[in-house]
Design brief:
The complex is a heterodimer of chains A (120) and B (413).
Chain A: E1 2-9, H1 20-38, E2 42-47, E3 55-60, E4 63-68, E5 77-85, H2 89-96, E6 106-111
Chain B: H1 7-30, H2 33-54, H3 60-78, H4 86-101, H5 111-118, H6 125-135, H7 141-147, H8 152-168, H9 178-201, H10 207-227, H11 232-245, H12 248-251, H13 271-286, H14 292-304, H15 314-327, H16 331-343, H17 347-361, H18 365-377, H19 381-394, H20 398-412
């Protein structure tokens, strides 16, 4: 069973680069990634650039509209993810709790759809 | 066709007593909440037909389990992609074979796992309550809807959404291990206490059903204690509910008005139930591991065990609220502590505390009711009447409104 752990945090909640807190958080990420790998549950995991580097796209009336953003600076934004292979939700939650951002942001754990979920 | 005499009663009795256990065993074997419930309903339908003809079998529970399992096999076979489920079908057939060869099939008790699944924190609080009442209590969807003033269809959809999430997100069907035990047990206990409080506080819904909710909550806590003995907080919760529920007959006048603790006829309290609550509390405390439910139980016990209100040990109650604050640092706990201080004699300190809590609790009726009471005792009638007005404005239930209106009226003379 695959679960994706989506890592959200507000712009002011995360430690600022070049502070000791930031160093500790990065250490934490290295340590938890190591654990995920050792336990054989990690299929993928990446950090994302901020939404100020994002480009949004939609098609309306057959035309592609491309724009800068989104800008939702006051809201929590998606900062990264891990993709886990776990036996059940409790196992996935156990690993999600090791993600350092859980201490100041929110980790959203979602089951990944498998072919039979599409009713194929 | 007319049912054989008593057959319906026999079936109702079995459903009431064994539904949780049979359903839990079926979910364990079928790995699906939905399928287990459907198969169990199918089995009950069969029971009505077969038992009418051939009489009730010697082991009706075992009969229901086997028939439900076969009904589930039929249901799986009717599914489009059933071929992929051959291994599962083979396993179910083997289980059936095994039961066929034993005189009294052993029904595994999986109810503890079921409680933890129903109360899993990944489900929203209202769904946990509904699912627990439906699966382990004896309440129908219609009765749960009535108790919570929901439409039956709304409640049905809520239950169905919760079951879908259990299946899709794979919420485990297991008793949590030691690393999760504390958090998960806390969730189970709070679900049971929510059920009890809904029944007790009578904020809404049908009166008869609400009484049932208290009984259901007590039944669930007893079940939990029986399945997992020597867990001090389970015993604490059971004790708390018993010493509270024991006082129900004294809480309302014949006209349906709430009667304050000090004015209740303590002769109406259920003495045997109080006694049971007190000995449970002793059993919990002997395990030497304090917790919020045990402290609440101790407070309730201090009220329930005195025959005359004026003998209540208020200084001890104030101390216990202080300890409770350590587990539950909330303004409501501080409010209760302040009330005990006032009852213990220090009205000035209590009124100062009410003022301090007022910004946070301004929409909380009991704060205004308490302020009104003690302002009146201090002789500040104008402020007391204003506080009663505010409390009455915030009250959602008729019995409490009458109580407060009567208190207010007394001040006017």
């Amino acid at each position: 069973m695959q679960y994706i752990a989506l890592i959200y945090s507000g712009p002011d909640a995360a430690p600022k680069p070049e502070t000791p807190e930031f160093g500790a958080m990065m250490q934490g990420y290295m340590a938890c990634t190591e654990t995920f790998k050792t336990d054989g549950v990690m299929l993928a995991g990446d950090a994302l650039h901020g939404t100020d580097k994002a480009t949004s796209l939609r098609i309306r009336g057959g035309k592609i509209e491309t724009m800068d953003g989104p800008f939702a600076e006051t809201k929590e934004q998606l900062g990264g993810y891990y993709l886990f292979e776990c036996e059940n939700l409790d196992a996935a939650l156990k690993y999600a709790a090791m993600i350092p951002t859980a201490a100041f942001g929110t980790i959203e754990v979602r089951p990944v759809m498998s072919p039979e979920d599409y009713g194929a | 066709m007319k049912n054989a005499p008593g057959l319906e009663a026999v079936i109702t009795q079995i459903v009431r007593k064994d539904r949780g256990r049979l359903l839990a065993a079926l979910i364990g074997s079928l790995n699906s909440f939905e399928l287990a419930e459907e198969a169990f309903s199918d089995a009950l339908e069969s029971a009505i037909i077969h038992w009418q003809r051939g009489g009730v079998p010697d082991n009706p529970q075992g009969w229901l389990l086997r028939v439900a399992r076969r009904k589930a096999i039929d249901r799986i076979r009717r599914q489009v992609r059933f071929r992929e489920r051959q291994p599962e079908l083979a396993r179910l057939a083997a289980e059936d074979e095994m039961d066929a060869n034993s005189m009294a099939p052993d029904i595994p008790d999986k109810r503890l796992a079921l409680i933890f699944t129903c109360c899993h924190p990944a489900l929203d609080a209202k769904s946990r309550v509904a699912l627990t009442l439906r699966s382990l209590g004896g309440l129908s969807t219609q009765e749960i809807a009535r108790a919570y003033l929901d439409k039956e269809t709304t409640m049905g959809q809520r239950l169905s959404r919760a079951k879908t999430k259990i299946a899709v997100a794979k919420i485990p069907y297991a008793v949590p291990g030691p690393e999760l035990w504390g958090e998960r047990l806390g969730s189970v206990l709070s679900v049971i206490y929510l059920i009890f409080n809904e029944g007790y506080s009578a904020s809404s819904g049908d009166a008869a059903i609400r009484g049932d909710l208290c009984e259901e909550a007590i039944y669930l806590a007893r079940l939990l204690d029986q399945l997992r003995g020597d867990e001090p907080e389970i015993i604490g919760l059971l004790s708390l509910m018993l010493t509270t529920h024991a006082r129900r007959a004294g809480r309302q006048s014949d006209a349906g008005t709430t009667i304050g603790l000090a004015d209740q006829d303590r002769g109406l309290w259920d003495g045997a139930m109080v006694q049971e609550g007190l000995s449970l509390l002793e059993r919990a405390m002997a395990l030497g591991q304090a917790g919020p439910f045990q402290i609440k139980a101790a407070i309730s016990a201090l009220h329930a065990s005195v025959k005359v209100a004026t003998r209540t040990d208020w200084p001890q109650i104030a101390l216990l609220y202080g300890r409770l604050y350590y587990f539950e640092p909330t303004a409501v706990v501080q409010l209760n502590r302040a009330v005990s201080l006032a009852e213990a004699g220090d009205v000035g300190a209590a009124l100062a505390e009410f003022d301090r809590l007022a910004p946070e609790l301004q929409g909380y009726q009991p704060l205004h009711a308490a302020r009104a009471e003690y302002l009146a005792r201090q002789g500040d009638m104008v402020a007391a009447i204003a506080a009663y007005d505010r409390a009455i404005e915030l009250t959602g239930n008729g019995a409490d409104r009458e109580f407060l209106t009567a208190r207010r009226a007394k001040l006017m003379h």
